[in-house]
Amino acid sequence: MITVVSITLENEMDLVLAHKRTMKVAEKLGLTMSTQTTFATAVSEIARVVIDYSDSGVLTIGLEQQKTRYSLVACVNFDPDIQFTNSDAGFYYAQKLVPEFTFTKGTEQSEITMKIGIPRSLKLDKLKITLLQRYFEDLEPLNAYDEIKQRNISLHKITDQQEEELRRSKIIDEQKTEFISIASHEIKTPMTVLKAYTQVAKSTSEPISDKLRDLLGKIDLQSTKLMTLVLQLMDISKIEHGSLEYDRKRTSLNDFLTAQVQVMQSILPHNELSTNLCADVDVMIDELRMEQVCSNLIGNAAKYSGKNTNIRIFTAVLDHAYMTVGITDQGMGISEDNLNAIFNKFYRTEDVLKTHSGLGMGLYVTSKIIKDHGGRIWAESSVGEGSTFFFTLPRV
Ligand code: ADP
């Protein structure tokens, strides 16, 4: 059926709408006044019986084409539990009024269809039908009740559209995560081989020139950077899938931090790393994941600071349950507006976009690891002077 108008049948006020709209459709099609009235009366009778039994019926008025001839059709759908008999006066009379009347009982919905043929002389065609549909789309509300009803329908439409958009963006997000997961796995394998060959070449006992040794060192450094990015991408897809796993062990916090600072100092020869650790405590940590946290925070401290600046790693007792670890740099700092956003996935501040390479994944992964360890992470900063990144860990 080609739908022209649809009306929900909830209460008596809808009877007026059903009657007037049916009359209007019949009138617009050019049917005679007596046909308009007969058809509209039959539709109103059925609408009334449905409203007597339920408030969830739907009337659809439209057109049906059989070969070259069209019929005006009114279809009323309603709850299958409603049982009509000829003792329902409206049901009985409506059958007498229209030439074609069918009652179909379904499992989900029952349906009453009323049809009346449209004379060929009215020369109904596709264009006229489209114009008719437009006319009813733009039709002013019949009364205040109709206006509220129409507004309600448009609100429902907007909600449906928003839900659909949300559903689509979720699918796109899932596809993106899936892509990141597959791409990072695919890149990781050749990267591992490349790195292994570079290591082998670097440690060869055969004589190689200084220039070649220097080049091998550069290849090794860049492949390590690339590998870090690939591993971060893999972590992101693990976070999205909820499959970031931890192998926690009781560890001395001071020993762990001292070892991390030593390693990072050898990687960052242009910065001076210092520690100021208070009395040692044990923490339950996944060492590999916490190494990632330290290397990201200390690495960022160096990356966003000038050469020969200091980076201080300290601990403080927050309360009897938590220890705080802080990393202070003397770098460019972060504006107040960005202090929370930097922990979001792929977020990078405007001022570093053109000056420093990066993908904005490190702090997102870092904050997830800290939170999964039962801690909290935040940053304090003043632009041009430096930043301090803090994280807490529960004491054993
Ligand atoms: P990336 O460094 O790859 O951009 P991160 O997630 O590690 O990704 O950091 C997100 C953003 O936070 C950085 O792009 C930078 O704008 C800001 N940022 C992080 N650490 C610092 C820091 N120590 N000093 C100044 N800005 C920082």
TrEMBL record:
SUPFAM superfamilies: ATPase domain of HSP90 chaperone/DNA topoisomerase II/histidine kinase, Homodimeric domain of signal transducing histidine kinase. Residues 182-396 form the Histidine kinase domain. GO terms for molecular function: ATP binding; phosphorelay response regulator activity; phosphorelay sensor kinase activity; protein kinase activator activity. PROSITE patterns: HIS_KIN (PS50109). GO terms for biological process: osmosensory signaling via phosphorelay pathway. Keywords: ATP-binding, Kinase, Nucleotide-binding, Phosphoprotein, Transferase, Two-component regulatory system. This is histidine kinase. It comes from the Bacteria. It catalyses: ATP + protein L-histidine = ADP + protein N-phospho-L-histidine. Its EC number is 2.7.13.3. Pfam families: HATPase_c, HisKA.
